[in-house]
Amino acid sequence: MDWIKVLTKHIIYEYRDLRDSEFAAWVKIMALTAHLEHIPSRKQMLGVANYQTIDSLERKLKTHYHDGNPIDLPYVLHKVLIDVSYVSHRREQLKLNTQRYRDKSKAVIDDVMITSSTREDKIREEPPIVPQKTGDGGGEEKPKRKKKEKLPIEYTQEFLQFYDAYPRKAAKIAAWTAWKNSNGNRPAIDEIIYALETQKKSQQWTKDAGRYIPYPATWLNRGGWGDELDGQVKGGW
Predict the structure, then answer these.
(1) pLDDT class for 234, splitting at 50, 70, 90?
(2) Is the distance from CB of 190 to CB of 93 less than 8 angstroms?
(3) pLDDT by residue (tens digit) across 211-230?
(4) Are the C-beta atoms of residues 7 and 233 closer than 8 Å to each other?
(5) In degrees rounded to 5, what are phi and psi of residue 140?
(6) Tens of pLDDT along 141-167?
């Protein structure tokens, strides 16, 4: 694990009594925990901060409470390990979803190539259009062109999953176009669903019976999966 995310509210409000040296030691110990993926020993902590600062930090942490119990350094580092476990799981899941998406894309490309080849063969087999003469002998009529038939839209399974999860069902064809245009920029489908489920609970999307929920195409075009509504922050603790 090469990084750790700490919410600003915890630093500004809950731990504003820490000195700069204590805060720096606290962050270093959390980063060390994320790197080791387990709570470091006292000896390992002394590699990033001196013992006086660590002792002072532990005393001040115990002046804070959670559910009526004082907070200590192991309690804080345990929450770091929860985030480490979650991020590691998400990375593996994203890798798996990316591989699945690539496999599906390859299958779709192969199917399109086969379908195109079949259509070309069918065109070759169709007889040519023969001009028809008019009934009064006034010349030949122009060949009649067949009307181009509109093929039904074949949505992908991932788009249908997104559209089913989206709370505002409107302009599906426009949403499909936006979905295709965002290919290569949007994250994996499960991350999009996670963002939707989070934003569904926001004040902006729930007030006035969902009046301010954007159209799905608008949400996709602006990369709505990265929106942070009502001051909510994804991840962290």
Answers:
(1) very low
(2) yes
(3) 889 999 999 999 999 887 66
(4) yes
(5) -100, 145
(6) 666 676 767 778 889 999 999 999 999
The pLDDT tens digits of the residues spanning 171-182 come to: 999 999 999 998
What residue segments make up the domains of the chain, in order of their start? 8-83, 153-228
Instruction: Give the sign of the dihedral formed by CA 60, CA 62, CA 66, CA 72.
Output: positive
The alpha-carbon radius of gyration of the chain (Å, integer) is: 30
Average pLDDT, the chain: 80
Q: State the pTM of this model.
A: 0.36
Between CA 134 and CA 56 the distance in angstroms is 104
SS (H, E, C) the chain: CCCCCCCHHHHHHHCCCCCHHHHHHHHHHHHHHHHHCCCCCHHHHCCCCCHHHHHHHHHHHCCCEECCEECCHHHHHHHHHHHHHHHHHHHHHHHHHHHHHHHHHHHHHHHHHHHHHHHHHHHHHCCCCCCCECCCCCCECCCCCCCCCCCCCCCCHHHHHHHHHCCCCCCHHHHHHHHHHCCCCCCCHHHHHHHHHHHHCCHHHHHHHHCCCCCHHHHHHCCHHHCCCCCCCCCCC
Give pLDDT tens digits for 92-130. Answer: 888 888 888 888 877 777 677 676 666 666 666 666 665
* Separation between Cα atoms, residue 92 and residue 222, nearest integer Å: 27
Nearest to 30 by CA among 64, 5, 62: 5
d(CA 20, CA 17): 10
- Tokens encoding 205: 């999307």
